[in-house]
Design goal:
Elements lengths: L1 H27 L2 H9 L3 H11 L1 H30 L4 H30 L1 H18 L1 H17 L5 H21 L5 H13 L9 E2 L6 E2 L4 H11 L3 E5 L6 E6 H6 L13 E3 L4 H11 L3 E5 L5 E6 H5 L4
């Protein structure tokens, strides 16, 4: 009986350390590295990448595995106490649980978590095949928890997308920090990346210039008059309004006016439109891809709220 209890206790400790360490390694591992390993043909990395896309299945397997390990440790303690002290097993079981609790906590929880915290990718890859084995073996129980979690997620009105975005940004910041420490990224590049992360999800309405603060010119104005207005207001780009309707038909750049011969207001460039609920990064990519310096910001009804310039969108990145 003693040897049976000892075997159960050691197996329970190993399983507790295994699942506790894998749980920490899963949350600390770099997803990008898993993707690269999976693309290289690594089957273990492919399985782990599947679990990162279905994190609730991983959590369910880890919970069932930890519960199984704790039950094995408890059962081993009861068997050992019953064999050593058959007269008063209840009191002896309580005393044994109190004595063994620090050992289980340190060697079954804290130590493996700390090891996986220091080298998450390496240790998770080494233990990945074992964890995938338990995913299959424990699926009858873990699958029920997984399906229950998905059902609750469907009934919940709150979207998980913001949480995923926060986690992805945190992981990307960690990758950038590693790149900087390795000497791959210069400080300016790291600063630019952090600037993109800081404003990427902000709506473009936060960066627009409202209609009341915009200087515009008419299409029939002379080039010299427009240049004088631009010089007084220090404006490199100016919207152009139609003479009859007053609606914007495009915009002109001061540098183009100075290079263009003649006194006509030309060339008038196309004025792209962006929705006010578009993200900062989407608007910036739109202007960069089209080569334009100015965009009209409109609401859902198509009404013009103001303009946003390429220069204004670039400012928060640095």
């Amino acid at each position: 009986m003693i040897w049976t209890a000892l075997g159960l206790w050691i197996a329970g400790m190993l399983l507790s350390a295994f699942f506790s360490g894998c749980e920490t390694g899963f949350y600390r591992a770099t997803r990008l590295r898993l993707v690269l390993d999976a693309m290289g043909g690594d089957r273990v990395a492919r399985g782990l990448l599947f679990l990162t896309n279905h994190p609730s299945l991983f959590v369910a397997t880890a919970l069932v595995g930890n519960s199984m390990a704790n039950n094995m440790i408890s059962l081993a303690t009861v068997i050992a106490v019953g064999a050593i002290v058959p007269q008063t097993p209840e009191a002896a079981e309580i005393i044994a649980a109190i004595i063994l609790a620090p050992v289980v906590l340190v060697y079954g929880e804290l130590l493996p978590k700390n090891l996986f915290l220091q080298a998450p990718n390496r240790l998770l890859h080494r233990c990945g095949a074992g964890f995938l084995f338990f995913v299959v073996v424990l699926f009858p129980l873990a699958g029920l928890l997984w399906l229950l979690g998905r059902l609750i997620g469907r009934l919940s009105p709150t979207s998980r997308e913001p949480v995923r975005l926060v986690l992805a940004q945190r992981e990307l910041r960690h990758i950038l920090a590693e790149g900087h420490e390795a000497g791959i990224l210069h400080p300016a590049q790291q600063s630019l990346a952090h600037g993109i992360l800081a404003v990427a999800r902000k709506p473009v309405r936060q960066f627009l210039t409202p209609l009341g603060h915009i200087m515009q010119v008419r299409a029939d104005m002379s080039k010299q008059a427009v240049l004088r207005m631009a010089q007084r207001s220090h404006t490199p780009v100016i919207p152009v309004a139609d003479v009859a309707t007053g609606r914007w038909i495009g915009y002109v750049r001061v540098v183009d006016l100075r290079l263009h011969d003649g006194d006509a207001l030309a060339p008038i460039r196309t004025l792209p439109e962006v929705r006010d609920d578009s993200t900062h990064l989407a608007a910036l990519m739109r202007l960069e891809s089209t080569g334009e310096s100015l965009a009209r910001v409109t609401n859902a009804q198509g009404e013009t709220l103001g303009i946003v310039t390429l220069e204004r969108l670039r400012e928060p990145l640095f």
